[in-house]
From TrEMBL:
Name the UniProt record assigns to this protein: Knr4/Smi1-like domain-containing protein
Organism: Xanthomarina gelatinilytica
Record-linked InterPro entries: Knr4/Smi1-like_dom, Knr4/Smi1-like_sf
Xref: Gene3D superfamilies: SMI1/KNR4-like
SUPFAM superfamilies for this protein: SMI1/KNR4-like
Domain Knr4/Smi1-like: 5-129
Tree of life domain: Bacteria
Amino acid sequence: MGTKPASETEIKLTEKRLGIEFPADFKEFLSLTNGFSAPNDIEPTFEPTDNIDYLKNVDSHIIEAYSIDGIENIGKELEKSILVGGINEEQYFLLIPSDLKREKWKYWKFANWYPGEEEHENLESYFNDVLEFINEQLETE
């Protein structure tokens, strides 16, 4: 599908390094492909397990930019987010761990040129939206 699958050991080592346990759908995704090229010029490339890290370790400036009055709630989410896609690209795909207030992980596509985050219910919902967009583009050509 993209690259060779991540092994269970690679996934567990990444989780241990980050101090979290990924949601089941993301672990399943990694078990299918350890990295995935963007299907178009708009979507982020999903990173292999070796590149996955907290956004604050990769791009702390974006967290600072979104931690100002009025949008500080976005900055707080970015502070704890895990960057799984889009390193050195125009937009990121982020996983935001659950916390005491909510049990579910958040799935965000995030870019500075797009005002705010684009939240998805889960990984499947994101890829369904991407597929729908690609089909719409093909129909207009």
